[in-house]
Amino acid sequence: MTERLELAQKIHDFLDAHAKIAAAYDPEYDDPGERFNGPDSSMLYAAAERLKADVPFQMPFSSWGSGCYKPVHDQEAKAKHDEILAELRVYLDNAPTAPAR
Q1: Number of domains in the chain
Q2: How far apart are CA 97 and CA 99, in angstroms?
Q3: Whole domain around residue 39: which residue ranges?
Q4: Nearest residue to 2 (alpha-carbon basis) of 57, 44, 52, 50
């Protein structure tokens, strides 16, 4: 698995464990990207999907204190969140201007 795909999986694993789900989300009718209760987790999800598709994207905004993640006082989960953002920044800083085909 490439570094890009590993980072995408890391984001998905983090969201599965720590993103709050929107109360109105119905997996039968809604797209997977619509399951989150706020824009921060939705932006991370979109970044993971773009990593998987190998298409360019901008650095997503995400803040641990946004109310999109749980449990809010879990310092280990916050550290994972911050680590993911740092890895995304390094990836984007080193990404070619066009995706590899």
Answers
A1: 1
A2: 7
A3: 3-94
A4: 52
Burial class (CB in 10 A: 0-12, 13-18, 19+), 47: buried
Cα–Cα nearest to 84, from 100, 98, 69, 99: 69
State pLDDT tens for residues 23-34.
999 999 999 999
Q: Give residue-wise pLDDT tens across range 16-56.
A: 999 999 999 999 999 999 999 999 999 999 999 999 999 99
Beta-carbon-side half-sphere exposure of residue 19 (alpha carbons within 13 Å): 25
Cα→Cα distances 42→9, 64, 98, Å: 15, 13, 24
CB count within 10 Å of CB 82 equals: 13
